[in-house]
Amino acid sequence: MSGNRFAARVDAIAAFQVMELMDRARRLEARGVDVVHMEVGEPDFISADPILEAGRAAISAGHTGYTSALGLPALRQAIAAYYGRWHGVALDPERVVVTAGASGALMLLAALLLEPGDGLLLADPGYPCNRYIPLFAGAQPQLVPVAADTAYQLDGAGVAAAWSAHTRGVLVASPANPTGSVLARKALLELIGQVQARDGWLLVDEIYQGLVYPAELEMLPDAARHGGVASDRVGSVLQLLTDAAAPVYVLNSFSKYFGMTGWRIGWMVVPEQAVAPLERLAQNFYIAPSSIGQHAALAALGDPAMVVHEQRRHAFCARRNLLVAGLRELGFGVPRVPEGAFYVYAELPEQLRARGSRAFCERLLDEHGVAATPGTDFGTYRAGDHVRFAYTADLARIETALERISAAMPT
Ligand SMILES: Cc1ncc(COP(=O)(O)O)c(C=O)c1O
Q1: In 301-394, which ranges are continuous DSSP H helix?
Q2: What is the pTM of this model?
Q3: Does the beta carbon of 178 sit less than 6 angstroms from any atom of ligand 1?
Q4: In terms of residue numbers, what domain contains 6?
């Protein structure tokens, strides 16, 4: 019997309900039913041409071996230069650690920072892996309910109230999944102050960096202009830090803005003293991130690819505007226009709440051909009242989805 026993920690990790919905959607499609996919958290665009070409060139040139565990030096330098050019941050490339996606980065950070029993504060709702990966390391995710009044984000007061004797740090995401909300400069400064006052650390998941839509968050052609923008937002928490040893860790990835989900390349920016232990962990966990993926990622940061990423960002913005207006018209609650990522976290109209978001999503898919994700995938706080719609479908398909959602409304 014991040969078939799995470690108890596995039981604590739940499957994504959205996967079941995706299987259901595939079965429907196999029967010829048309489904609008708004459940998936990845861009519907394939990687931009310069990225594809660089990937092919890397294979042709035989770049098929291991790289340094910390990543190709040229990529670490290019990432540092990207922060300089687009976010006005002078960053030492030595603090950049290239990883196997942001997921790989969080596994390394969980191994680096968390002792069994340590508490980690996270917003509820939030991206489920951001609590399951620390849980796997033996830590205790401490979910703090957030709502529209704090832009669905943790703030200084929320952290101060939730911090307990075993809490070691805070993990926030900006822009966030599933709410698309962006942390204000003031809230970020408060969070930094709170963790430093408690000798803890702050992890900032910036994987949707670049996918931001209000005018003041436009990516600017050069860093010099950045300082001139009146804004209560920052493109990266790094803009608020002057000390390279401050206990703030940034997680990022080529998956979303750069449209490279399947290449599995992400990165971290870490305090300088953390680089050497992270290198040891990466060497032992997976040796190095994909070499071909890293060569392709280098092209993702070049001007020709950046032009494509920016065009796509504008397309996402138009989709967001259409979807938010349409959902509001149908009676869904969207109290704040989501400023980033590609999600709308909408509250079900009152008359649909009794049966809950999971039942609604199943009915929406089975009877109306729209796949969306129930809020219950992202936490427990009012999760049954919410649905996440990803605008990873073009405008025409979003129009179709809105018509179908309208048909699913009680009369
Ligand atoms: C908030 C957030 N963080 C991290 C990830 C992981 O992304 P990846 O491992 O592809 O870089 C995702 C993916 O959806 C996400 O939504």
Answers
A1: 303-329, 356-368
A2: 0.94
A3: no
A4: 2-46+306-407
